[in-house]
Amino acid sequence: MNHQPHILVIDDEPQITRALRTILTARQFRVSTAGRGEEGLALAAAQQPDMIILDLYLPDMDGIEVCRRLREWTKVPVIVLSVRDSERDKVTALDSGADDYLTKPFGIEELLARIRVAQRHAIQSQGAGQPVIVTGELEIDLAKHRVKHRGEEIKLTATEYKLLAYLVSHVGRVLTYRAILSHVWGPGESEHVEYLRVYVRQLRRKLEVDPEEPRYIINEPGVGYRFITQD
Amino acid sequence: MRILKIKLQPKWQNAFSHLLLALLVTLAFSGVLYLLRQFIDPLPIALLYLLPVGLCATLWGLGTGVLAAILAFLGLNYFFIEPRFSLFVHQSQDLIVLLVFLGVAIFISQMVGRTRNSLAAARARELEAVRLYRLSAELAELHNDRDIVESIARHIMETFQARQVQVTLEGKAGQETFLYRMPDEAISTQPFEHMHTLRMPLQSPNETIGEVRLWRVQSGQSPMEERLLQTFGYQSVLALERSRLIEAETRARVLEESDRMKTSLLSSVSHELRTPLSTIKAAATSLQSKAVSWDSEARDELLLAIDEEADHLNLLVGNLLDMSRIESGEFKPEQRWNALDEVIDTVLNRMRTALRRHFIEVDVPANLPLVFVDDVQIGQVFANLISNGLKYAPENTLIRIRASKRDEEAMLVQVSNQGPPVPAPDLERIFEKFHRVTAADRITGTGLGLSICKGIVEAHGGRIWAQNLPDGFAIYFTLPLTWQGISPHIPKEHEPSATHPSDR
User: Fold this and answer.
1) Is B96 on the interface with A (CB under 8 A)?
2) Does residue A22 sit in helix, strand or coil?
3) Which of A124, A197, B85, B171 has a 20 to 30 Å separation from B399 between CA atoms?
4) Is A86 within the bounds of a domain?
5) Percent of chain B scored above 90 by pLDDT?
6) Domain boundary among A67, A97, A126
7) Domain around A189
8) Do A60 and A117 fall into the same domain?
9) Mean pLDDT of A180-202
10) Comparing B10-14, B356-360, B398-402, which segment has the lowest mean pLDDT?
């Protein structure tokens, strides 16, 4: 399929849209841009892009509102751009259907990694998820409920496994504290970040080569966690 | 108080009791004189009869005195003037004596009674003055509306024997109306229908600022009460206006201070912004230049400089944002349970490029309890402290981060570097805004970093301080290990049984 992926950038800063257009075009993406929320929504409906990069601060409407309105009719991956100190906005955007976020200023490698993850996830959600994830020295078989490190099986408690399986099945994507807690511990426990901290620590001790320099389970301050692969 | 009470009794009851008193005193006196009639000439008897008159006038006032004078006149006539036991008078001489007696008695009772009444009035005025003095002395020490209103209500309650006092203050620009009730607010919900209400507006020269209402049993008010209530009102208005003036002045001073701060912040910030900008500009234009062909190592170095300086600018902007929020009092950390080692790892990971010329050692045991902090903000504290170390300590020296449990309540964190010591008098001042120990031309910085660390740590209920070490300099701070006095509870789970022993 010789189809260039189409990315819609909704951001009111011309410098950002210009830079993104140049960089992403060089990476074989087709790019269109919108400076306002309404314009962005209209373009999204008219052009059906493969992905949307959305700034949370737009002159005419809240980026979170744009996100909500997109989710009324499309599952197109949305990556929101935000700044430090607005963790609450990021979490709201993620809870309103955004797939991922990026804190400004960001390195372009980071953006490309997010785009790759979102693309992969969009393909996966159409078919069945990968049953076996292999990354570095780690092999996680979601169908057989088995985790191996350098070929040796690692024993996990039921909760540890549930947590790891949830993170891994969304590999590369950020998951908010609330989403993880209510999935692993139940909706009534969604405020108990302390459970998550302790279990992530336990998991790292069992999975990571150096738990103090985690390579798999990455902390997103104020927002949540993400499981990344080494490729 | 006592005087007020007497004045406030209904009049008819008063008059009746006075008549009774005068009658009793005069009769008793007549009895005594009658028993002693053999030993006393008739003439001094008339003089002696002046005694009950004076007594009544002194004790119970003018009316009773006059009453006693008439009764004494009748008694003298009845018991001692011939013919006795009748009110008839035979000799004209006796009639003159009687009439003169009546005149003198009434005159005396008037004199005494008036003196007594003016004494009472003087006492009442004195009491009034004392009350006013107490009120104004108390008001002079109060500086906010609530205290002032409470004090006014209490004084009015005591002075006017009110059952309930209510003070309403009109809302100042955009504020709600302030209502204060005395005594208990719960009681006040019952209607005081059977009571009498007095109202007094609180009127400043240009506007009505509120109203005082009081409920009490008796109706109406004496002129003195009216005057006193009004004076209380003036005093209250004065006190309220004064407190508002002070408030306005404080606000103006704070604004002025923050204005001054902003000016020096701007000049300091523009200075600091220029340094990374110069680097970025120089590196970018060098790379653009066609005159030199850069080898790949030099090219990478320039690109790294651009990247690093951009991060530096980002940290600075973050600090500015934090500073403005700390200053405006809007700063509220979003505290949740966090693993400190994780917070530190995230920061170090982000600062990796900047750290490449120094060694870093993290001594944070992995089994430390969780801390109740805003991880983004505490991350900013670590970033500032590490960036400080990078700035002041020479290359290839060690920056060390240590954490340990100080007690059940707090974690103690130390961030040290092998930079030069800070002179003792500056150890506290380095946390002030724009304070830098080193001359500005040697090391750039707004002097904001440490004061932000202080603001963040204190907003978490912790403490921060600096100390010189034998081989460098350290900042210490504490972080909370409990929230509302409680440590986090983690549900326990059994480790899976060893079904695959070979895994060990």
Assistant:
1) no
2) helix
3) A197
4) yes
5) 22
6) A126
7) 132-227
8) yes
9) 92
10) B10-14
Q: Which tokens belong to B263?
A: 């000016």
Complex confidence, ipTM = 0.89
To test the contact with chain A by mutation, choose from B315, B334, B374, B375 the residue with the greatest count of A C-beta atoms within 10 A, namely B375
Mutation target vs B (from A181, A206, A213, A219; most B CBs, 10 A cutoff): A219
| pLDDT tens for each residue of B280-313 | 999 999 998 888 888 888 999 999 999 989 988 8
A113 and A150 share one domain? no
Separation of first and last alpha carbons in chain B: 92
Q: Strand pairing partners for B360?
A: B399
Domain formed by B333-494, architecture: 2-Layer Sandwich (3.30)
pLDDT class of B8 with cuts at 50, 70, 90: very low
Query: How far is CA B336 from its chain centroid?
Result: 32
**Is residue A1 domain-resident?**
no
* Cβ–Cβ < 8 Å for A101, A174: yes
Amino acid at B427: L
Cβ distance of B376 and A221 shorter than 8 Å: yes
Residue pLDDT, tens place only, A102-135: 988 898 998 999 999 888 887 776 655 677 888 8
Cis peptide before B420 (omega within 30 of 0): no
Q: Which value, in Å, is the radius of gyration of the alpha carbons in chain A?
A: 18
Side-chain half-sphere of B35: how many Cα atoms within 13 Å? 5
Q: If contacts are CB pairs under 8 Å, which of residues 56-115 in chain A contact chain B? A: 84-85, 87-88, 105, 107
User: In B, which residues are within 8 Å of A158 by CB distance?
Assistant: 493
Provide the CATH number for the domain around residue A76: 3.40.50.2300
Alpha carbon distances (Å) from A28 to A1, A2, B489, B497: 14, 11, 51, 52
**Of A22-26, A127-131, B128-132, B344-348, which range is least confident?**
A127-131
User: What is residue B269's DSSP assignment?
Assistant: H
Give the domain-ending residue among A107, A126, A145.
Answer: A126
CA pair distance B440, B392, nearest whole angstrom: 12
Topology of the domain covering B142-252 = Beta-Lactamase (3.30.450)
Q: Are B164 and B186 in contact (CB under 8 A)?
A: no
Residue B494 pLDDT greater than 60, yes or no: yes
Closest C-alpha among B78, B102, B105, B81 to residue B91: B81
